[in-house]
Amino acid sequence: MTLIWLGVLLFVAIGPIDYPGQPSVVVLTVVAIGLAIFLPSYRGGKLVFDRWFALQARSPRPSTRMLNNVAMFASLVGIVGITLVALDRTVLSGVSNSSYAELLRCAPGLVDTIAIKRTPLLYGGYVMFSFGFVSIVLFLLKGEEIRGWAAALGQLSIVSPIGYALLYSGRMPILFVLVLVAMAMLVRVAQGRTLLPRGHYLLLKTGIAVSLFAVYSSAIWSSRQSFCTQMLPLIAELEQEKNQRDASVAYDPAASGGIPRPKPAETIAATELNKRIVEAQKVQQAAPVASSADAFLPKMLMAWNVMPRGYVTSAIDSGRLSARGAMIGLSTYFYLTHGVRTIDIVWKARDKFTPQWGVYEIGVLSPLLRIYFSNSDQVAVMEAELRAAAIYGFFPTAWAAAFIDFGLVGAIIYVAIWGAVAGWSAAGSRHSGLMTPQLLLVFVLASVLLSPVQGPLGMANSALVLVSMLVTGLVLDFAKLRARETATPGGNTPAI
Protein backbone atom coordinates (compact mmCIF):
# COMPACT_ATOMS: atom_id res chain seq x y z
CA MET A 1 0.00 0.00 0.00
CA THR A 2 2.75 2.45 0.95
CA LEU A 3 4.80 1.78 -2.18
CA ILE A 4 1.75 2.10 -4.43
CA TRP A 5 0.83 5.50 -3.01
CA LEU A 6 4.40 6.79 -3.07
CA GLY A 7 4.55 5.81 -6.74
CA VAL A 8 1.22 7.45 -7.56
CA LEU A 9 2.13 10.71 -5.83
CA LEU A 10 5.46 10.76 -7.67
CA PHE A 11 3.75 10.15 -11.03
CA VAL A 12 1.32 12.98 -10.36
CA ALA A 13 4.21 15.31 -9.50
CA ILE A 14 6.28 14.60 -12.61
CA GLY A 15 3.95 12.75 -15.02
CA PRO A 16 2.82 13.86 -18.50
CA ILE A 17 -0.18 15.84 -17.19
CA ASP A 18 0.34 18.96 -15.10
CA TYR A 19 -2.03 18.92 -12.13
CA PRO A 20 -1.57 22.46 -10.77
CA GLY A 21 -0.31 22.32 -7.19
CA GLN A 22 -0.61 18.54 -6.86
CA PRO A 23 0.11 16.60 -4.79
CA SER A 24 -0.77 19.28 -2.26
CA VAL A 25 -0.09 19.33 1.47
CA VAL A 26 -3.72 18.35 2.01
CA VAL A 27 -3.35 15.29 -0.22
CA LEU A 28 -0.12 14.23 1.46
CA THR A 29 -1.73 14.59 4.89
CA VAL A 30 -4.86 12.62 3.95
CA VAL A 31 -2.80 9.82 2.39
CA ALA A 32 -0.51 9.69 5.44
CA ILE A 33 -3.51 9.47 7.80
CA GLY A 34 -5.11 6.77 5.66
CA LEU A 35 -1.94 4.69 5.71
CA ALA A 36 -1.57 5.27 9.46
CA ILE A 37 -5.02 3.70 9.93
CA PHE A 38 -4.69 0.91 7.36
CA LEU A 39 -1.27 -0.47 8.33
CA PRO A 40 -1.86 -1.00 12.10
CA SER A 41 -5.27 -2.50 11.28
CA TYR A 42 -3.49 -4.88 8.93
CA ARG A 43 -1.23 -6.00 11.77
CA GLY A 44 -4.26 -6.42 14.01
CA GLY A 45 -6.03 -8.57 11.45
CA LYS A 46 -3.00 -10.86 11.20
CA LEU A 47 -2.85 -11.16 14.98
CA VAL A 48 -6.52 -12.12 15.17
CA PHE A 49 -6.06 -14.96 12.70
CA ASP A 50 -2.84 -16.18 14.30
CA ARG A 51 -4.42 -16.34 17.78
CA TRP A 52 -7.99 -17.44 17.07
CA PHE A 53 -7.93 -19.40 13.84
CA ALA A 54 -4.47 -20.95 13.68
CA LEU A 55 -5.90 -24.39 14.45
CA GLN A 56 -7.56 -24.37 11.04
CA ALA A 57 -4.13 -25.10 9.57
CA ARG A 58 -4.72 -28.76 10.41
CA SER A 59 -8.07 -28.89 8.63
CA PRO A 60 -8.30 -31.39 5.76
CA ARG A 61 -8.18 -30.27 2.16
CA PRO A 62 -11.57 -29.99 0.43
CA SER A 63 -12.36 -32.95 -1.73
CA THR A 64 -11.57 -32.56 -5.40
CA ARG A 65 -15.15 -33.39 -6.21
CA MET A 66 -16.47 -30.63 -3.94
CA LEU A 67 -14.01 -28.11 -5.34
CA ASN A 68 -14.93 -28.93 -8.93
CA ASN A 69 -18.65 -28.81 -8.19
CA VAL A 70 -18.43 -25.40 -6.53
CA ALA A 71 -16.19 -24.05 -9.32
CA MET A 72 -18.60 -25.29 -11.98
CA PHE A 73 -21.61 -23.90 -10.15
CA ALA A 74 -20.00 -20.46 -9.74
CA SER A 75 -19.06 -20.43 -13.43
CA LEU A 76 -22.56 -21.31 -14.58
CA VAL A 77 -24.17 -18.78 -12.25
CA GLY A 78 -21.89 -16.02 -13.56
CA ILE A 79 -22.45 -16.89 -17.21
CA VAL A 80 -26.23 -17.14 -16.79
CA GLY A 81 -26.21 -13.86 -14.87
CA ILE A 82 -24.45 -11.83 -17.54
CA THR A 83 -26.70 -13.49 -20.16
CA LEU A 84 -29.78 -12.25 -18.30
CA VAL A 85 -28.35 -8.73 -18.05
CA ALA A 86 -27.55 -8.75 -21.77
CA LEU A 87 -31.03 -10.03 -22.65
CA ASP A 88 -32.68 -7.27 -20.65
CA ARG A 89 -30.44 -4.48 -21.92
CA THR A 90 -30.32 -5.40 -25.61
CA VAL A 91 -33.75 -6.95 -26.23
CA LEU A 92 -36.26 -6.12 -23.51
CA SER A 93 -35.26 -2.58 -22.54
CA GLY A 94 -36.68 -0.96 -25.66
CA VAL A 95 -33.53 1.08 -26.28
CA SER A 96 -30.45 0.55 -28.40
CA ASN A 97 -28.10 -0.47 -25.60
CA SER A 98 -24.86 0.69 -27.22
CA SER A 99 -26.22 4.15 -27.99
CA TYR A 100 -27.94 4.47 -24.62
CA ALA A 101 -24.83 3.44 -22.66
CA GLU A 102 -22.57 5.72 -24.69
CA LEU A 103 -24.97 8.65 -24.29
CA LEU A 104 -24.97 8.27 -20.51
CA ARG A 105 -21.16 8.16 -20.58
CA CYS A 106 -21.23 11.51 -22.36
CA ALA A 107 -23.97 13.00 -20.17
CA PRO A 108 -24.63 10.92 -17.01
CA GLY A 109 -27.06 13.52 -15.71
CA LEU A 110 -29.62 12.35 -18.28
CA VAL A 111 -30.12 8.96 -16.59
CA ASP A 112 -33.49 9.97 -15.13
CA THR A 113 -34.63 11.64 -18.34
CA ILE A 114 -34.88 8.49 -20.45
CA ALA A 115 -37.58 5.89 -19.75
CA ILE A 116 -36.33 2.36 -20.40
CA LYS A 117 -37.96 -0.90 -19.46
CA ARG A 118 -36.32 -2.89 -16.68
CA THR A 119 -37.45 -6.46 -16.08
CA PRO A 120 -36.72 -8.75 -13.11
CA LEU A 121 -34.18 -10.48 -15.35
CA LEU A 122 -31.88 -7.47 -15.00
CA TYR A 123 -31.84 -7.60 -11.22
CA GLY A 124 -31.52 -11.37 -11.17
CA GLY A 125 -28.59 -11.08 -13.54
CA TYR A 126 -26.95 -8.48 -11.31
CA VAL A 127 -27.12 -10.82 -8.34
CA MET A 128 -25.54 -13.63 -10.37
CA PHE A 129 -23.00 -12.21 -12.83
CA SER A 130 -20.36 -11.36 -10.22
CA PHE A 131 -19.79 -15.08 -9.60
CA GLY A 132 -17.98 -15.08 -12.94
CA PHE A 133 -15.19 -13.02 -11.38
CA VAL A 134 -14.97 -15.51 -8.49
CA SER A 135 -14.88 -18.49 -10.81
CA ILE A 136 -11.84 -17.12 -12.63
CA VAL A 137 -9.98 -16.46 -9.37
CA LEU A 138 -10.91 -19.84 -7.90
CA PHE A 139 -9.69 -21.62 -11.02
CA LEU A 140 -6.36 -19.76 -10.92
CA LEU A 141 -5.86 -20.53 -7.23
CA LYS A 142 -6.79 -24.20 -7.51
CA GLY A 143 -6.16 -25.00 -11.16
CA GLU A 144 -4.13 -28.11 -10.32
CA GLU A 145 -7.24 -29.67 -8.79
CA ILE A 146 -10.00 -28.21 -10.96
CA ARG A 147 -10.31 -30.29 -14.09
CA GLY A 148 -12.57 -31.11 -17.01
CA TRP A 149 -15.72 -29.05 -17.50
CA ALA A 150 -15.07 -27.08 -14.32
CA ALA A 151 -11.72 -25.90 -15.69
CA ALA A 152 -13.21 -25.04 -19.09
CA LEU A 153 -16.09 -23.11 -17.51
CA GLY A 154 -13.70 -21.34 -15.15
CA GLN A 155 -11.84 -19.91 -18.13
CA LEU A 156 -15.04 -19.21 -20.04
CA SER A 157 -16.25 -17.11 -17.10
CA ILE A 158 -14.20 -14.24 -18.51
CA VAL A 159 -17.37 -13.45 -20.49
CA SER A 160 -18.93 -12.01 -17.31
CA PRO A 161 -16.58 -9.02 -16.89
CA ILE A 162 -16.17 -8.58 -20.63
CA GLY A 163 -19.92 -8.67 -21.20
CA TYR A 164 -20.50 -6.21 -18.37
CA ALA A 165 -17.94 -3.82 -19.83
CA LEU A 166 -19.43 -4.02 -23.32
CA LEU A 167 -23.00 -3.57 -22.11
CA TYR A 168 -22.11 -0.42 -20.19
CA SER A 169 -19.42 0.90 -22.55
CA GLY A 170 -16.80 0.81 -19.83
CA ARG A 171 -13.26 -0.36 -19.18
CA MET A 172 -13.13 -0.80 -15.42
CA PRO A 173 -14.75 -4.31 -15.28
CA ILE A 174 -12.07 -5.71 -17.57
CA LEU A 175 -9.30 -3.84 -15.78
CA PHE A 176 -10.65 -5.11 -12.47
CA VAL A 177 -10.69 -8.77 -13.53
CA LEU A 178 -7.17 -8.47 -15.00
CA VAL A 179 -5.96 -7.04 -11.70
CA LEU A 180 -7.69 -9.93 -9.88
CA VAL A 181 -5.84 -12.35 -12.16
CA ALA A 182 -2.53 -10.65 -11.39
CA MET A 183 -3.22 -10.73 -7.65
CA ALA A 184 -4.14 -14.44 -7.82
CA MET A 185 -0.73 -15.02 -9.41
CA LEU A 186 0.89 -13.07 -6.57
CA VAL A 187 -0.90 -15.19 -3.96
CA ARG A 188 0.28 -18.37 -5.68
CA VAL A 189 3.88 -17.16 -5.71
CA ALA A 190 3.67 -16.18 -2.02
CA GLN A 191 2.52 -19.75 -1.29
CA GLY A 192 5.60 -21.14 -3.07
CA ARG A 193 3.72 -22.30 -6.16
CA THR A 194 4.11 -21.55 -9.85
CA LEU A 195 2.80 -18.29 -11.26
CA LEU A 196 -0.12 -20.06 -12.96
CA PRO A 197 -1.50 -23.60 -12.90
CA ARG A 198 0.31 -25.80 -15.39
CA GLY A 199 -1.48 -26.65 -18.59
CA HIS A 200 -4.33 -24.81 -20.32
CA TYR A 201 -1.81 -22.39 -21.97
CA LEU A 202 -2.76 -19.85 -19.29
CA LEU A 203 0.31 -17.65 -19.71
CA LEU A 204 -0.41 -17.26 -23.43
CA LYS A 205 -4.11 -16.63 -22.78
CA THR A 206 -3.30 -14.02 -20.15
CA GLY A 207 -0.94 -12.22 -22.50
CA ILE A 208 -3.59 -12.22 -25.23
CA ALA A 209 -6.20 -10.89 -22.77
CA VAL A 210 -3.95 -8.01 -21.70
CA SER A 211 -3.14 -7.14 -25.32
CA LEU A 212 -6.79 -7.19 -26.33
CA PHE A 213 -7.67 -4.99 -23.37
CA ALA A 214 -5.09 -2.43 -24.50
CA VAL A 215 -6.62 -2.43 -27.99
CA TYR A 216 -10.15 -2.26 -26.59
CA SER A 217 -9.26 0.58 -24.23
CA SER A 218 -7.83 2.61 -27.10
CA ALA A 219 -10.76 1.83 -29.39
CA ILE A 220 -13.47 2.61 -26.85
CA TRP A 221 -11.86 5.93 -25.95
CA SER A 222 -11.70 6.98 -29.61
CA SER A 223 -15.24 5.75 -30.20
CA ARG A 224 -16.54 7.59 -27.15
CA GLN A 225 -14.86 10.83 -28.16
CA SER A 226 -16.34 10.59 -31.64
CA PHE A 227 -19.81 9.67 -30.36
CA CYS A 228 -19.84 12.41 -27.72
CA THR A 229 -18.81 14.97 -30.33
CA GLN A 230 -21.66 13.82 -32.59
CA MET A 231 -24.14 13.94 -29.72
CA LEU A 232 -23.22 17.42 -28.41
CA PRO A 233 -26.21 19.14 -30.10
CA LEU A 234 -28.61 16.38 -28.97
CA ILE A 235 -27.24 16.44 -25.41
CA ALA A 236 -27.75 20.20 -25.30
CA GLU A 237 -31.35 19.76 -26.48
CA LEU A 238 -32.07 17.00 -23.95
CA GLU A 239 -30.57 18.98 -21.09
CA GLN A 240 -32.56 22.07 -22.08
CA GLU A 241 -35.76 20.03 -22.22
CA LYS A 242 -34.93 18.49 -18.85
CA ASN A 243 -34.36 21.90 -17.28
CA GLN A 244 -37.62 23.21 -18.72
CA ARG A 245 -39.54 20.21 -17.37
CA ASP A 246 -37.89 20.54 -13.96
CA ALA A 247 -38.72 24.24 -13.83
CA SER A 248 -42.35 23.59 -14.72
CA VAL A 249 -42.81 20.76 -12.21
CA ALA A 250 -44.86 21.77 -9.21
CA TYR A 251 -43.84 20.78 -5.72
CA ASP A 252 -46.04 18.42 -3.77
CA PRO A 253 -46.23 19.71 -0.18
CA ALA A 254 -48.16 16.63 0.93
CA ALA A 255 -45.34 14.24 0.02
CA SER A 256 -43.24 12.57 2.72
CA GLY A 257 -44.93 13.95 5.79
CA GLY A 258 -45.28 17.49 4.57
CA ILE A 259 -41.69 17.88 3.32
CA PRO A 260 -41.87 19.49 -0.13
CA ARG A 261 -40.47 17.23 -2.82
CA PRO A 262 -40.54 17.66 -6.60
CA LYS A 263 -43.08 15.55 -8.43
CA PRO A 264 -41.59 13.15 -11.00
CA ALA A 265 -41.00 14.86 -14.31
CA GLU A 266 -41.93 13.33 -17.64
CA THR A 267 -39.31 11.19 -19.35
CA ILE A 268 -38.35 10.56 -22.95
CA ALA A 269 -39.49 7.26 -24.40
CA ALA A 270 -36.76 4.86 -25.48
CA THR A 271 -38.09 4.66 -29.05
CA GLU A 272 -38.00 8.44 -29.37
CA LEU A 273 -34.46 8.54 -28.03
CA ASN A 274 -33.32 5.97 -30.61
CA LYS A 275 -34.75 8.09 -33.43
CA ARG A 276 -33.12 11.27 -32.16
CA ILE A 277 -29.72 9.57 -31.80
CA VAL A 278 -29.90 8.28 -35.38
CA GLU A 279 -30.88 11.73 -36.66
CA ALA A 280 -28.05 13.39 -34.73
CA GLN A 281 -25.53 10.94 -36.17
CA LYS A 282 -26.74 11.58 -39.71
CA VAL A 283 -26.38 15.34 -39.28
CA GLN A 284 -22.87 15.06 -37.87
CA GLN A 285 -21.74 12.57 -40.51
CA ALA A 286 -22.77 15.05 -43.16
CA ALA A 287 -20.44 17.63 -41.60
CA PRO A 288 -17.61 15.74 -39.86
CA VAL A 289 -15.49 17.54 -37.29
CA ALA A 290 -11.75 17.23 -37.79
CA SER A 291 -9.78 16.13 -34.74
CA SER A 292 -6.19 17.17 -34.05
CA ALA A 293 -3.91 17.91 -31.17
CA ASP A 294 -4.71 21.60 -31.59
CA ALA A 295 -8.41 20.81 -31.07
CA PHE A 296 -7.86 18.23 -28.36
CA LEU A 297 -5.62 20.18 -25.99
CA PRO A 298 -8.02 23.14 -25.46
CA LYS A 299 -10.85 20.66 -24.82
CA MET A 300 -8.64 18.89 -22.33
CA LEU A 301 -7.93 22.16 -20.52
CA MET A 302 -11.60 23.11 -20.45
CA ALA A 303 -12.99 19.73 -19.36
CA TRP A 304 -10.31 18.66 -16.89
CA ASN A 305 -8.60 21.96 -16.00
CA VAL A 306 -5.19 20.46 -16.78
CA MET A 307 -2.61 20.66 -19.54
CA PRO A 308 0.12 18.33 -20.81
CA ARG A 309 3.59 19.10 -19.54
CA GLY A 310 6.04 20.85 -21.78
CA TYR A 311 7.91 17.73 -22.83
CA VAL A 312 4.65 16.18 -24.11
CA THR A 313 3.66 19.30 -26.06
CA SER A 314 7.17 19.47 -27.51
CA ALA A 315 6.98 15.84 -28.64
CA ILE A 316 3.65 16.52 -30.36
CA ASP A 317 4.87 19.69 -32.05
CA SER A 318 8.02 17.96 -33.31
CA GLY A 319 6.05 15.05 -34.74
CA ARG A 320 7.71 12.45 -32.50
CA LEU A 321 4.31 11.79 -30.92
CA SER A 322 1.10 11.63 -32.94
CA ALA A 323 -1.96 13.60 -31.90
CA ARG A 324 -3.96 10.36 -31.63
CA GLY A 325 -1.28 8.68 -29.54
CA ALA A 326 -1.09 11.70 -27.25
CA MET A 327 -4.86 11.80 -26.82
CA ILE A 328 -5.07 8.11 -25.90
CA GLY A 329 -2.03 8.17 -23.63
CA LEU A 330 -2.98 11.36 -21.80
CA SER A 331 -6.60 10.32 -21.34
CA THR A 332 -5.58 6.94 -19.91
CA TYR A 333 -3.08 8.60 -17.59
CA PHE A 334 -5.73 11.07 -16.44
CA TYR A 335 -8.21 8.21 -16.00
CA LEU A 336 -5.88 6.49 -13.52
CA THR A 337 -4.34 9.45 -11.66
CA HIS A 338 -6.85 12.29 -11.38
CA GLY A 339 -8.20 10.90 -8.11
CA VAL A 340 -5.27 12.53 -6.30
CA ARG A 341 -6.65 15.95 -7.18
CA THR A 342 -10.13 14.77 -6.15
CA ILE A 343 -8.86 14.25 -2.60
CA ASP A 344 -7.89 17.91 -2.44
CA ILE A 345 -11.25 19.04 -3.83
CA VAL A 346 -13.24 16.84 -1.44
CA TRP A 347 -11.30 18.08 1.57
CA LYS A 348 -11.84 21.72 0.68
CA ALA A 349 -15.57 21.06 0.20
CA ARG A 350 -15.89 18.66 3.14
CA ASP A 351 -18.58 20.73 4.88
CA LYS A 352 -20.86 20.33 1.85
CA PHE A 353 -21.00 16.52 1.96
CA THR A 354 -23.44 14.37 3.90
CA PRO A 355 -22.82 10.62 4.45
CA GLN A 356 -24.25 8.44 1.68
CA TRP A 357 -23.92 5.11 3.53
CA GLY A 358 -22.61 3.12 0.58
CA VAL A 359 -24.74 4.63 -2.19
CA TYR A 360 -21.72 6.50 -3.59
CA GLU A 361 -19.49 3.44 -3.98
CA ILE A 362 -21.92 0.55 -4.41
CA GLY A 363 -23.23 1.24 -7.89
CA VAL A 364 -26.18 -1.14 -7.78
CA LEU A 365 -27.83 0.84 -4.96
CA SER A 366 -28.53 3.98 -7.02
CA PRO A 367 -30.86 2.36 -9.60
CA LEU A 368 -32.59 0.39 -6.84
CA LEU A 369 -33.28 3.60 -4.94
CA ARG A 370 -34.49 5.36 -8.10
CA ILE A 371 -36.92 2.60 -9.01
CA TYR A 372 -38.13 1.04 -5.77
CA PHE A 373 -37.79 4.04 -3.45
CA SER A 374 -38.79 6.84 -5.79
CA ASN A 375 -39.83 9.04 -2.86
CA SER A 376 -36.27 9.01 -1.55
CA ASP A 377 -34.14 11.96 -2.59
CA GLN A 378 -30.81 10.48 -1.49
CA VAL A 379 -29.50 9.89 -5.01
CA ALA A 380 -30.53 13.39 -6.11
CA VAL A 381 -28.92 14.94 -3.02
CA MET A 382 -25.73 12.96 -3.58
CA GLU A 383 -25.50 14.04 -7.22
CA ALA A 384 -26.16 17.65 -6.26
CA GLU A 385 -23.36 17.55 -3.69
CA LEU A 386 -20.94 15.98 -6.16
CA ARG A 387 -21.80 18.56 -8.82
CA ALA A 388 -21.46 21.42 -6.34
CA ALA A 389 -17.96 20.17 -5.51
CA ALA A 390 -17.19 19.69 -9.24
CA ILE A 391 -16.27 16.00 -8.85
CA TYR A 392 -19.35 14.41 -10.45
CA GLY A 393 -18.12 11.67 -12.78
CA PHE A 394 -14.55 11.71 -11.48
CA PHE A 395 -12.76 9.00 -9.52
CA PRO A 396 -12.33 9.73 -5.79
CA THR A 397 -9.59 7.31 -4.58
CA ALA A 398 -10.26 5.02 -1.64
CA TRP A 399 -9.72 7.81 0.91
CA ALA A 400 -12.17 10.34 -0.58
CA ALA A 401 -14.73 7.62 -1.34
CA ALA A 402 -14.66 6.50 2.30
CA PHE A 403 -15.31 10.07 3.48
CA ILE A 404 -18.12 10.75 1.00
CA ASP A 405 -19.89 7.51 1.91
CA PHE A 406 -19.40 7.45 5.68
CA GLY A 407 -18.19 10.83 6.92
CA LEU A 408 -14.97 11.40 8.88
CA VAL A 409 -15.54 8.94 11.74
CA GLY A 410 -17.15 6.39 9.44
CA ALA A 411 -14.22 6.67 7.02
CA ILE A 412 -11.77 5.86 9.82
CA ILE A 413 -13.78 2.76 10.74
CA TYR A 414 -14.14 1.79 7.06
CA VAL A 415 -10.38 1.99 6.40
CA ALA A 416 -9.65 0.15 9.66
CA ILE A 417 -11.96 -2.72 8.64
CA TRP A 418 -10.36 -2.80 5.20
CA GLY A 419 -6.90 -3.09 6.75
CA ALA A 420 -8.03 -5.72 9.27
CA VAL A 421 -9.55 -7.88 6.52
CA ALA A 422 -6.29 -7.53 4.57
CA GLY A 423 -4.25 -8.75 7.53
CA TRP A 424 -6.68 -11.55 8.41
CA SER A 425 -6.77 -12.86 4.85
CA ALA A 426 -2.97 -12.62 4.45
CA ALA A 427 -2.39 -14.66 7.62
CA GLY A 428 -5.13 -17.12 6.72
CA SER A 429 -3.71 -17.72 3.25
CA ARG A 430 -0.26 -18.36 4.70
CA HIS A 431 -1.15 -20.52 7.71
CA SER A 432 -4.29 -22.41 6.72
CA GLY A 433 -5.86 -24.27 3.84
CA LEU A 434 -9.13 -22.34 4.06
CA MET A 435 -10.41 -20.83 0.81
CA THR A 436 -12.17 -17.77 2.24
CA PRO A 437 -8.90 -16.06 3.26
CA GLN A 438 -7.34 -16.79 -0.14
CA LEU A 439 -10.27 -15.37 -2.09
CA LEU A 440 -10.46 -12.34 0.21
CA LEU A 441 -6.71 -11.77 -0.13
CA VAL A 442 -6.97 -11.63 -3.92
CA PHE A 443 -9.80 -9.13 -3.61
CA VAL A 444 -8.01 -6.99 -1.02
CA LEU A 445 -4.76 -6.91 -3.00
CA ALA A 446 -6.71 -5.78 -6.06
CA SER A 447 -8.44 -3.07 -4.02
CA VAL A 448 -5.08 -1.87 -2.68
CA LEU A 449 -3.60 -1.66 -6.18
CA LEU A 450 -6.65 0.24 -7.46
CA SER A 451 -7.02 2.43 -4.36
CA PRO A 452 -5.71 5.52 -6.24
CA VAL A 453 -8.80 5.16 -8.44
CA GLN A 454 -11.66 3.89 -6.24
CA GLY A 455 -12.52 2.43 -2.87
CA PRO A 456 -12.70 -1.33 -2.30
CA LEU A 457 -16.49 -1.34 -2.80
CA GLY A 458 -16.58 1.00 -5.78
CA MET A 459 -14.80 -0.79 -8.63
CA ALA A 460 -17.19 -2.10 -11.29
CA ASN A 461 -19.73 -3.33 -8.72
CA SER A 462 -16.91 -4.87 -6.70
CA ALA A 463 -19.22 -5.00 -3.68
CA LEU A 464 -21.14 -7.75 -5.48
CA VAL A 465 -17.86 -9.51 -6.31
CA LEU A 466 -16.87 -9.36 -2.64
CA VAL A 467 -20.18 -10.94 -1.57
CA SER A 468 -19.79 -13.65 -4.22
CA MET A 469 -16.27 -14.42 -3.00
CA LEU A 470 -17.47 -14.67 0.59
CA VAL A 471 -20.32 -17.00 -0.38
CA THR A 472 -18.05 -19.24 -2.46
CA GLY A 473 -15.30 -19.36 0.15
CA LEU A 474 -17.68 -20.07 3.03
CA VAL A 475 -19.39 -22.89 1.13
CA LEU A 476 -16.03 -24.59 0.54
CA ASP A 477 -14.77 -23.99 4.08
CA PHE A 478 -18.01 -25.14 5.70
CA ALA A 479 -17.74 -28.43 3.81
CA LYS A 480 -14.11 -28.61 4.88
CA LEU A 481 -14.88 -28.07 8.55
CA ARG A 482 -17.65 -30.66 8.48
CA ALA A 483 -15.18 -33.14 6.98
CA ARG A 484 -12.74 -32.42 9.81
CA GLU A 485 -15.41 -32.94 12.47
CA THR A 486 -16.40 -36.24 10.90
CA ALA A 487 -12.79 -37.39 10.67
CA THR A 488 -11.86 -36.36 14.24
CA PRO A 489 -12.27 -39.12 16.84
CA GLY A 490 -14.89 -38.14 19.34
CA GLY A 491 -16.25 -35.50 17.00
CA ASN A 492 -19.72 -36.94 17.35
CA THR A 493 -21.58 -36.75 20.63
CA PRO A 494 -21.50 -40.22 22.24
CA ALA A 495 -24.71 -41.96 23.12
CA ILE A 496 -25.56 -41.96 26.81
From TrEMBL:
Q: Which residues cross the membrane?
A: 26-45, 66-87, 121-141, 148-167, 173-190, 202-221, 398-421, 433-453, 459-479
Q: Which organism is it from?
A: Bradyrhizobium niftali
Q: What is this protein called?
A: Oligosaccharide repeat unit polymerase
Q: Point out the signal peptide segment.
A: none
Q: Which domain of life is it from?
A: Bacteria
Q: Does the keyword Transmembrane helix apply?
A: yes
Keywords attached to this Swiss-Prot or TrEMBL record, sorted alphabetically, are: Membrane, Transmembrane, Transmembrane helix
